[in-house]
Design goal:
The structure is a single chain. The chain has three helices and two strands; from the N terminus they run αβαβα. By secondary structure, it is mainly α. It is globular and about 30 Å long.
Length: 71
């Protein structure tokens, strides 16, 4: 919650992604500030086998598929 760099949101939305506050089986990925901090969202993502990324990991992963500059 509250961890949403504006440039990241814009890039995700420009690529057709949707930003939500909830985790569901429709969720493709969870981006968190710190992967080591347990939360309701990370627990739910793990239950649904949804990948969990910190910001640096997400940018690295995303660069593999898109032209994505540093946020």
């Amino acid at each position: 919650t509250g961890f949403r760099p504006k440039q990241l949101i814009q890039r995700i939305q420009q690529s057709g992604g949707v930003i939500t506050d909830d985790i569901s089986k429709k969720t493709n990925a969870l981006i968190v500030k710190e992967k080591t901090k347990p939360s309701r969202k990370t627990k739910r993502a793990k239950e649904l086998h949804i990948p969990i990324f910190d910001l640096d990991e997400f940018i690295y992963h995303y660069k593999q598929y898109k032209d994505f500059d540093t946020v």
